[in-house]
Amino acid sequence: MANQLISEMGLPKSIANVFAARNIRTAKDALSLTEFDLMELVDMGLTEVTSVLVHISERVSPPHQTARSLLQQRIQNEQLAGHLPTGLKGLDEALFGGIPFGVITELVGPAGIGKTQFCLKLSLLASLPTRHGGLDAQVIYIDVESKFSSKRLIEIGAQSFPEIFHMSGMAQEMAGRILVLRPASLAEFTESLQQIKILLLERRVKLLVIDSMAALTSGELEHGASKINPLGWHISFLKSVAELSRIPIVVTNQVKSQSSDEAWRYNFQVGTRRQDLEDTSKYDSHLIAALGIHWAHAVTIRLILETISGERFIKVAKSPMSPALAFPFSITSSGISLLNDDGIEVVGQEISTIHCHGHSEIIHSDTLQFHRQ
User: Fold this and answer.
1) Which residues pair with 355 in a beta bridge?
2) Over 80: is that where the pLDDT of 273 sits?
């Protein structure tokens, strides 16, 4: 817009010729000068120069939009982009359809909370036929910590979709649509990215899962690599893959401990006993997501999985469309199940706070290694 020619802006020919004679050929040339500079350069009065600049500005400025039109455009784009439903009604409604295409969605939580269970269910849903609510597609699953279990995947499928998995050969077919890669280091993961890119082009891949990103960087830190944004290039690559391929990318992230003078607690938890709230010694030290602030800015959706007083919660901690909500859940033979579909609103510091009361494994903030409490 700034390089649009003055001669194409509908100005009187006499004025356009004067500007051209003074080597003012584009909107940028004209708008880079002050009104008094232009008066002297083109020998015009202030009123005429001001009128010309207003005309040029109106031609090159983007049209204004109302908040309503922006919202309608956003909803339309979301509908065109699509979502992968999680099968969790309350969460899908909060996310306007499920895990969105074209962006990175992150699952954060302590070890054993259910992140891999969530990823297995998503992988299954993406591979299911469309008539059963799936994407009828293939999945690339980056299994960094060797937690992927075909047996558990089939168990979830048989319990969730018995009409499909009890058909002869269907369990094997669904499992065969999930391509599992197991890089042992960040270097191997980097080398596999080109292979992933080719697979996205050659096959009908509709979901990329990385379980987990923090485990990749922890190996780098063990070998003395720089702690400063080790995933800088990978962040850009994954964001571009999500946007260009229009697929959902789901990554898991671990937590690390951070010293705190205060025991943090939910102020919205249903059924919490008063004595539990008063006994702050029962709560863990403050936890934060691993990988740092650069990674946090790269993800569009952040879901925190946590426990407090023996109850598990999945919390929408970051979303451009959804309010911060928490849903109590359990893990059953059919995977993750919400205890109710009515999300509990989260406010203030609780939005980003992570609890793991009842879990015995956390990651130390300095080494990103697992330590038993």
Assistant:
1) none
2) no
How far apart (Å, rounded) are the C-alpha atoms in residues 341 and 264? 25
Q: Does residue 230 carry a pLDDT above 90?
A: no
**How high does pLDDT run on average in the chain?**
81
Which amino acid is located at 83 in the chain?
H
What are the counts of helices (DSSP H) followed by strands (DSSP E) for the chain? 15, 16
Q: Which residues contact 253 (CB under 8 A, 6 or more apart)?
A: 106, 107, 108, 212, 213, 214, 289, 290, 291, 295
Asked whether 122 and 106 are in contact (CB, 8 A), the reply is: no
Provide CB contacts within 8 A for 187, sequence distance 6+. Answer: none
Residue 176 above 60 pLDDT? yes
Find residue 325's DSSP bridge partners: 345
Choice between 280 and 64, residue whose per-residue pLDDT is larger:
64
H or E element that contains 235: helix 232-245
CA angle 310, 318, 106 (to 5 degrees): 75
Read off the pTM. 0.70
Q: What is the C-alpha separation between 268 and 298, in angstroms, rounded?
A: 29
Cα R_g (the chain), whole angstroms: 27
What does the pLDDT read at residue 358?
A: 57
